[in-house]
């Protein structure tokens, strides 16, 4: 008696493709962003500042370094004989404050982003090497980090700027040489645990080269943490550049910088409050926007803080 056999047919490929899929990481990030109105406001403010930095000539109503003592310390809304409106007033040299704020955003963002990239590259490379190789490599790098932490940043900045001279390149160098240790310490601690994981041990057993393990196995697993650090530290970089410019150690005049404008206005706080108020407000809003976005990125990229989809 023949036994009838039944066969279970696999579903067609089209049916598999029609099955609903879960949201992607990008969709989850956007969903998380929509739940945070402060982060969305911060993103909008930061986009405006970035546009100011990229194409300042499009938004700037006047020349930021044009001086005329006839316009000496004019209040917001002043209109000259030519019909030019100074919406935020003028400073002690008759320069338009609004135009200087717009052009100053280029210096602040350029210094902040470049310093973050340089310090991040150095810190990630050093941290991965210290955590993976250990031994004398880790000891030397750890002692360098401890020594760098023992030197006050302002003292280091004053010394280096006095030796090298105030310029945009030197300011970026000074900030990057001090902030790479933050990346190095965090990356080192993560690599110490990652190198004991099965996927790294398997790569070693498979005969992968050291460079391949560092570049393709360890680096992708620490990049999310370093992105969060970079975002949070971007605001700090902007503040550091403004502080150095305020002390006269930043980009030399007449190049407009937010810190330099604050320094110019501190002598006129009781008579011309607008000279220091508006650059200070823009600096505060920019740094706050960066920090709000950094908190959002931390929740999105950190697997321990991710929210599960409904």
The CATH topology annotation of the domain at 89-301 reads as: MetI-like fold
Topology as a string of helices (H) and strands (E): HHHHEEHHHHHHHH
Number of strands: 2
CATH classification class of the domain at 89-301: Mainly Alpha
Mean pLDDT: 83
Radius of gyration, whole Å: 26 Å
Number of helices: 12
Q: First CA to last CA: what distance?
A: 54 Å
Specify the biggest β-sheet: 2 strands, antiparallel
Shape: elongated
Contiguous low-pLDDT stretches (5 residues minimum) are: 1-10
Helix content estimate: 55-70%
CATH architectural grouping of the domain at 89-301: Orthogonal Bundle
What is the CATH superfamily classification of the domain at 89-301? Answer: MetI-like
SSE-based structural type: mainly alpha
Order of strands, main sheet, comes to 1-2
Note the beta-strand portion.
Answer: under 5%
Descriptors for this entry?
mainly alpha, MetI-like fold, disordered N terminus, two-stranded antiparallel sheet, 310 residues
Question: Layout of SSEs?
Answer:
Blueprint: H1 13-18, H2 25-34, H3 37-54, H4 56-59, E1 78-79, E2 85-86, H5 97-133, H6 135-150, H7 153-164, H8 168-194, H9 198-205, H10 210-246, H11 258-265, H12 274-301
Antiparallel strand pairs: 1-2
Helix pairs in contact: 3-5, 3-12, 5-6, 5-8, 5-10, 6-8, 7-8, 8-10, 9-10, 10-11, 10-12, 11-12
Please tell me about this protein's structure:
The chain is mainly α and 310 residues long. It has a domain at 89-301: MetI-like fold (Orthogonal Bundle), CATH 1.10.3720. The protein contains twelve helices and two strands. It has helices at 13-18, 25-34, 37-54, 56-59, 97-133, 135-150, 153-164, 168-194, 198-205, 210-246, 258-265, 274-301; strands at residues 78-79, 85-86. The chain has a two-stranded antiparallel ribbon. A hairpin with a 5-residue loop joins strand 1 (78-79) and strand 2. Helix 3 (37-54) packs across helix 5 and helix 8 (168-194) runs antiparallel to helix 10 (210-246).
């Amino acid at each position: 008696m023949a036994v009838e056999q039944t066969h279970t047919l696999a579903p067609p490929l089209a049916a598999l493709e029609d099955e609903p899929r879960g949201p992607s990481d990008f969709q989850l990030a956007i969903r998380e962003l929509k739940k945070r109105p402060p982060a969305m406001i911060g993103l909008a403010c930061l986009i405006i500042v970035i546009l100011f930095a990229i194409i300042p000539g499009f938004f700037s109503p006047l020349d930021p370094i044009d001086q005329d003592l006839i316009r000496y310390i004019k209040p917001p809304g002043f209109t000259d004989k030519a019909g030019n409106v100074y919406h935020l007033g003028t400073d002690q040299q008759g320069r338009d404050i609004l135009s200087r704020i717009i052009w100053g955003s280029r210096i602040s963002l350029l210094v902040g982003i470049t310093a973050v990239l340089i310090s991040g590259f150095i810190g990630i490379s050093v941290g991965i090497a210290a955590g993976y190789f250990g031994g004398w490599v880790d000891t030397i790098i750890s002692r360098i980090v401890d020594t760098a932490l023992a030197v006050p940043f302002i003292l280091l900045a004053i010394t280096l700027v006095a030796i090298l001279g105030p310029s945009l390149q030197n300011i970026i160098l000074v900030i990057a040489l001090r902030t790479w240790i933050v990346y190095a310490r965090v990356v080192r601690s993560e690599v110490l645990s990652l190198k004991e994981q099965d996927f790294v041990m398997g790569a070693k057993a498979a005969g992968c080269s050291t460079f391949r393990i560092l570049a393709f196995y360890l680096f992708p697993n620490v990049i999310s943490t370093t992105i969060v650090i970079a975002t949070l530290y971007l605001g700090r970089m902007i503040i550091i550049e403004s502080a150095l410019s305020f002390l006269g150690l930043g980009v030399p005049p007449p190049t407009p910088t937010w810190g330099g404008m604050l320094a110019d206005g501190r002598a006129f706080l009781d008579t011309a409050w607008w000279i220091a108020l508006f650059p200070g407000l823009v600096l505060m809003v920019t740094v706050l926007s960066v920090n709000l976005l950094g908190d959002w990125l931390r929740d999105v990229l950190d697997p321990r803080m991710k929210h599960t989809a409904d």
